[in-house]
Amino acid sequence: MSLKGKTALITGSTSGIGLGIAQGFADQGINIVMNGFGDKDKIEAERKALEDKGVSAIYHGADMTKPEEIRDMVALAEKEFGAVDILVNNAGIQHVCPVEDFPEEKWDAILGIILSSAFHTTKASIGGMRKAGWGRIINMCSAHGLVASPYKTAYVSAKHGLLGLTKTIGLEVAQDNITCNAICPGYVFTPLVENQIADTAKARGISEEEVVNNVLLAAQWTKKFVTIEQVAGIALFLCSDTAANITGTDIVVDGGWTAA
Ligand code: NAD
Q: How far apart, in Å, are the Cα atoms of 170 and each of 33, 117, 198?
């Protein structure tokens, strides 16, 4: 089945995994609605690079903590393209801190950006998917949707909640040719992670290789980062006909982390 001409709205697609999914989707002829923060010129350059692949790409800067902006973004996508055929809830932030010191505004922001935004985008998009008779919802979860790590109260709670949302929506749309699934990556080699390696090596007085194996990938049994392309490939698979009967579940790509 060709996905050419479908439209994907990907939250948090100005960087890292979201941008990689946008590029992988555009390679298959899927129109893109980009979203996320960042430098205006860089975002415009990425948008143009997507169009160079022969698709239409638009950008909406909706803040995922603001439901009215989310609704406006979905409305723009539907106006431009007819429907959001593929919704990827990917935007996310992290804050690491013991619970007694965890700032309340960080709790609200993380729950808002990771969990509540996925509710709002889904609620706004599902009518259009039903009308179009086809849809795919992909929630970017994490190994932290399945297991916890200390000091990540909000992130772990939000990602566990996102799996609950995934299961519930999967059931609600099961007979409408729409699927809803989550991807649970372990450590993914995004620029964000890459930039930490040299600094951590310096701070701890160990080699960059030791940082990767003993700090970042301590729980990842393959001792290899998941790549952005691997996550994008799984997202594409979930859009395929082969995956039409996969719904309300998650695909784990964590180098063995949660098997132990
Ligand atoms: P990233 O920082 O490179 O990208 C995050 C994106 O979210 C950016 O485009 C950013 O602008 C956007 N964003 C942040 N706050 C926003 C807001 N209020 N409104 C709209 N957009 C906002 O990070 P990434 O590593 O690519 O992470 C993407 C997703 O993958 C996140 O949900 C993250 O939890 C998940 N994830 C990442 C890893 C990893 O190791 N990198 C592992 C598992 C899951």
A: 23, 17, 42
pLDDT tens digits for 114-132? 999 999 999 999 999 999 9
CATH number of this structure's domain 7-187+226-259: 3.40.50.720
Q: In what order do the strands lie in the sheet with 178-185?
A: 57-60, 31-35, 7-10, 86-89, 135-140, 178-185, 250-253
Question: Between vectors from CA 127 to CA 124 and to CA 133, what angle results, nearest 5°?
Answer: 135
Counting from 1 in the atom list of ligand 1, the atom nearest the Cα of 109 is 18
In the residue annotation, 187 being an active-site residue is answered as: no
Q: Where are the domains of the chain?
A: 7-187+226-259, 189-224
pLDDT averaged over every residue in the chain? 96
- β-strand partners of 250: 182
H or E element: which one contains 120? helix 117-132
* C-alpha–C-alpha distance, residues 32 and 12, integer Å: 12
Q: Which of 21, 33, 37 maximizes ligand 1 atoms within 8 Å of its Cβ, making it the mutation to test the pocket?
A: 37
User: What pLDDT, in 10s, does the model give residues 179-188?
Assistant: 999 999 999 9
Q: Say what the pTM is.
A: 0.97
Name the one residue in this structure whose structure tokens are 């801190």.
Answer: 97
Q: How far is 161 from 119, CA to CA, in rounded Å? A: 11
Query: How far is the C-alpha of 43 from the C-alpha of 231, rounded, in Å?
Result: 21
